[in-house]
Each structure stands twice: as structure tokens, then as C-alpha cells.
Amino acid sequence: MLKEFKEFAMRGNVVDLAVGVIIGAAFGKIVASLVDDVIMPPIGRLLGHVDFSSLFINLSDKSYESLAAAKAAGAPTLNYGLFLNTVINFLIVAFVVFIVVQQMNRLIKKEAPAAPPTTKDCPQCAMAIPLAAKRCGHCTAQLA
């Protein structure tokens, strides 16, 4: 059983998948940083100095000045600002994956070589006949 597991784990697909998951997780952190640290601050400034990550709706009776204060008090909140950041993260990742897949398909997709001809035209009647034909099946002309 251990030998079977070792064979399964060492197959190329499993190792490739593991590498893909690890790189994907690192890429996710890069995209999260891009959204949180580079994209959202200018958007927040354009919209009147809004920090999306701190936008929330308080569902309790008490009033809280910030999301951190509400979380510290254990108050129920709807964190729609964090949701907006997550949606933007997803859109960026989806767009980048689309571009990468599109480029990979463009690299992989090569023109198939033309198949060698299997017929030739009869010099008398111009009809298509097999390459090995000695006589035209249409006009019965003798072929060289």
C-alpha cells in the first residue's frame, strides 16, 4: 500500500498540481497586496477618502467607531468593504488567468502541416484522380 501511494504521489500530474497550488497561493497573496495596497487607496481617495476595508454595517444596538472596535466587542457586522476588496481581488485574478490561458493557447496552437495530396488532376478532363492511377476513371485517358 505504501508503494502504491509513493507511485501515486510521484506521478508527474500530482507534483505539477502541488507546484501549481503553491504558486497559486503565492500569487493570491501578491494580488491581495496589489488590491489592498495599490489599487484601493487611489479609488478610496477618488471617492472621498474612503477606506473600503473599514466599511461595515453594525447589526447591534451599540454604535462603534470602527470595524476593529466592533470586532473587539464581538458585535455582529456586515463587512461589505472587505467583500468589495475580495470581489476586486477575484476580478484581477480572473483577468490575469484569462490573459495567461489566452497566451498559452496562442503559443500551443500551431498550424497543422498540410496533408500531402492524395489526388492529382487528369491532364485531359481536369477531374481529380488518385495519384497511383494509370488511367483516368472519368475520361479513360491513358496517364503517363
Strand order of the largest sheet: 1-2
Strand content: 5-15%
Total E-strand runs: 4
Q: Supply Rg.
A: 33 Å
User: Shape from CA axes?
Assistant: elongated
Poorly predicted tracts of residues: none
Order of helices and strands: HHEHEHEE
**Spatial separation of the terminal alpha carbons:** 69 Å
- Helix content range of the residues, please? 55-70%
Number of helices, counting only DSSP H or I runs of 4 residues or more? 4
Helix and strand composition category: mainly alpha
Task: Write down the overall mean pLDDT.
Answer: 85
Description:
With 144 residues, this protein is mainly alpha-helical. Helix content is 56%, strand content 7%. The protein is built from four helices and four strands. A hairpin with a 6-residue loop joins β3 (119-121) and β4 (128-130). The longest helix is centred in the first third of the chain and has 35 residues, at 12-46. The radius of gyration is 33 Å and the shape is elongated. The model has no long low-confidence stretch (mean pLDDT 85).
